[in-house]
Prior knowledge:
Helix 1 packs across helix 9 and helix 3 (96-111) crosses helix 5. The relative contact order is 0.13. The chain has nine helices and twelve strands. It folds into two domains: 5-93 and 280-299, NAD(P)-binding Rossmann-like Domain (Rossmann fold); 96-272, Rossmann fold. The protein has helices spanning 12-22, 34-40, 96-111, 114-122, 146-157, 184-190, 210-215, 233-242, 283-299, and strands at 5-8, 28-31, 46-49, 65-68, 87-89, 138-142, 161-165, 177-179, 193-196, 220-224, 245-250, 270-272. The strands form two sheets. The protein has a seven-stranded parallel β-sheet with strand order 8-7-6-9-10-11-12, with helices on both faces. 30% of the residues lie in helices and 16% in strands. The mean pLDDT is 97.
Amino acid sequence: xxxxxxxxxxxxxxxxxxxxxxxxxxxxxxxxxxxxxxxxxxxxxxxxxxxxxxxxxxxxxxxxxxxxxxxxxxxxxxxxxxxxxxxxxxxxxxxxxxxxxxxxxxxxxxxxxxxxxxxxxxxxxxxxxxxxxxxxxxxxxxxxxxxxxxxxxxxxxxxxxxxxxxxxxxxxxxxxxxxxxxxxxxxxxxxxxxxxxxxxxxxxxxxxxxxxxxxxxxxxxxxxxxxxxxxxxxxxxxxxxxxxxxxxxxxxxxxxxxxxxxxxxxxxxxxxxxxxxxxxxxxxxxxxxxxxxxxxxxxxxxxxxxxxxxxxxx
Length: 314
């Protein structure tokens, strides 16, 4: 008899029918509370999860697959106690097109001064400010993965010069120059707009700090769609208050949801979105379908295409 399918997610009621559809005839066990996960993880062979409690992987003696909901797996790293043969899989590339669209929307909104005009409307003031043009501007993309390359193509079509970083630089027709991560400062120094798309690892945590902001062009814009822990949020606020940054849009934060009393809510020229950049109407259904494909691969003895490299952390 096929083994049960397990899931630990806060949106349990939405997940259960999708799992039952993808795994007909199999038992589906869904947990939404940490005590349930801790008590039952020893029975799990395949698990679909988001932010599971830490410190319990040594109990997972039967586990073969952890399918993360989303591309980032920093909340699973390091997987202390997890057997080396357990596959950790993510959803890399799934949201490349929606995130590229979202990023481009934000870039244009900043250049066209939309945050300023929205604020003026709320204050019922008629104040003009000249919009900027995208054509001729330099876009710096930190992290030219699937999302970054999709964004580069769209920005290039608007006449933007695109530069960026990539772990192992490979030429791309839409990118004028690609630097290794060690060249991040050069990208920061040239870009009119910087978009952060790197994974959160030990190497990137806190890497956009006061020194990095000092390297950016005065009056540049910053968009973070990656992970909040990459940016020093106190340094971000200081850069906005000093005018070093002309504006920023952040979709991700070190603590989510962003607490009501967090000073970033009142930071000047900061536009906040609630970690939605990778969303699209069928995201959850598509994610469950990928999970089912990965389970099928393992049961056939085949490799999982979206497996995470534990050493790299993504």
